[in-house]
């Protein structure tokens, strides 16, 4: 028997650990492959192929990164992306959302290859970013479908299949100069589609300047996001040029969110991603006012007062909006610039990180109106959200007078 060397033992131990870590990623990769290809039936095989490819190339993965879930996920996601791209090509599928390129700008003399995933780099695998890529791909697919077949074909061949100019020119019987001209005209045609038929969505993703598209008029776009309050209508994303505010409201019930500081969602463009970033910012803003009695004014940046409101104390300016029947919320007032605002309990609840997570997990939820309860001997309010797809619900308990959270309970059965 030949004795094993120390390096062999370490290698075997590392391989064993690596196999276990790869197995832990399988479920996530199945979901990712289903999303990237739009084919859940193929996702299992594609995820398995991703893991096999990762195993074959394990020598390329730095040992010091072995324990980093972030680095593993980022590496495996990149492999899955390539695996899905190969699958798409072999099955005659033009998976536009797997390409690195788009055609949103077409100024003469610009470079041919423009980044589709114009998103901020992140060390973490970010599901939000992956979902946004899918939404951008859906928009690109729709735009390409509106072009003449010959124009669509040449754009796909060059920017999605990444075929060289010479190869495409030979296939079409053109000179390379003529091909370049055709590509340029194709990008112009694609931009016209973005600025006309798909204008609202192109504006929402930052592919078209909203001021050029709509001047000083309010720009609205119906999203695919169901209202978390009534679950009856899809949210409308709007942009107000006068104030620079981007927001979301339900045409049937509530205004959900709005903000005038685009730096909050810098780097993301899909309605869902923008709304998520806004809710995170609003959570910090409003719950600071509740827990500390003050927060920083969104208009002037100076400290402003926050106080709890009940129906009988509502300022007249907000009575028409909320009425006086069972209203609970926070009132904000800035003595420096005069800014004032009321935010009711339904909004305060959706701003909670736990409520946002519940909404992301279940997709369609609806608001459970508050009711008075006794909680550990304290006068309290109980409210939350119910999943529309199953019996899962999120219950939030508030101290009645202060609205501070006493407990959050999630029921899954």
Automatic annotation (TrEMBL):
Top-level taxon of origin: Bacteria
InterPro entries named among the record's database cross-references: RNA_pol_sigma-70-like (IPR039425), RNA_pol_sigma-70_dom (IPR014284), RNA_pol_sigma70_r2 (IPR007627), RNA_pol_sigma70_r4_t2 (IPR013249), RNA_pol_sigma_r2 (IPR013325), RNA_pol_sigma_r3/r4-like (IPR013324), WH-like_DNA-bd_sf (IPR036388)
Domain RNA polymerase sigma factor 70 region 4 type intervals: 139-190
Residue span, RNA polymerase sigma-70 region domain: 24-93
Keywords: DNA-binding, Sigma factor, Transcription, Transcription regulation
Family designation: Belongs to the sigma-70 factor family. ECF subfamily.
Name by which UniProt lists this protein: RNA polymerase sigma factor
Organism: Dictyobacter halimunensis
């Amino acid at each position: 028997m030949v004795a094993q060397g120390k390096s062999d033992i370490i290698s075997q131990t590392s391989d064993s650990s690596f196999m276990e870590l790869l197995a832990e990623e399988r479920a996530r990769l199945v979901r990712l492959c289903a999303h990237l290809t739009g084919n859940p039936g193929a996702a299992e095989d594609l995820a398995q192929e991703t893991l096999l490819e990762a195993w074959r190339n394990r020598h390329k993965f730095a040992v010091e990164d072995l324990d980093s879930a972030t680095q593993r996920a980022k590496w495996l996601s990149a492999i899955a992306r390539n695996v899905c791209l190969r699958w798409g090509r072999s099955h005659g599928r033009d998976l536009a959302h797997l390409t690195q390129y788009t055609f949103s700008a077409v100024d003469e003399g610009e470079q041919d290859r423009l980044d589709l995933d114009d998103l901020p780099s992140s060390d973490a695998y970010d599901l939000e970013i992956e979902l946004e890529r899918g939404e951008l791909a859906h928009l690109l697919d729709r735009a390409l479908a509106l072009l003449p077949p010959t124009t669509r074909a040449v754009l796909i061949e060059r920017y999605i299949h990444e075929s060289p100019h010479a190869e495409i020119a030979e296939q079409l019987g053109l000179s390379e100069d003529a091909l370049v001209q055709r590509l340029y005209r194709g990008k112009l045609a694609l931009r016209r589609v973005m600025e006309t038929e798909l204008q609202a969505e192109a504006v929402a993703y930052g592919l078209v300047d909203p001021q050029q598209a709509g001047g000083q008029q309010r720009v609205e776009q119906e999203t695919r996001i169901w209202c978390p309050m009534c679950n009856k209508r899809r949210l409308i994303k709007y942009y107000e040029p006068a104030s620079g505010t981007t927001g979301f409201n339900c045409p049937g019930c509530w205004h959900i969110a709005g903000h005038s500081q685009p730096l909050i969602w810098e780097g993301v463009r899909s309605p869902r991603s923008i709304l998520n970033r806004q809710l995170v910012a609003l959570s910090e803003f409003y719950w600071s006012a509740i827990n500390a009695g003050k927060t920083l004014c969104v208009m002037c940046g100076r400290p402003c007062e926050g106080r709890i409101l009940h129906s009988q104390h509502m300022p007249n300016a907000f009575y028409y909006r909320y009425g006086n029947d069972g209203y609970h919320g926070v009132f904000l007032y800035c003595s420096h610039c005069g800014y004032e605002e009321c935010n009711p309990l339904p909004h305060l609840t959706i701003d909670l990180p736990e409520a946002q997570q519940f909404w992301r997990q279940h997709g369609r939820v609806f608001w459970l109106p508050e009711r008075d309860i006794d909680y550990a001997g304290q006068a309290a309010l109980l409210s939350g959200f119910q999943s529309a797809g199953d019996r899962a619900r999120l219950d939030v308990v508030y101290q009645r007078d202060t609205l501070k959270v006493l407990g959050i309970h999630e029921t899954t059965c």
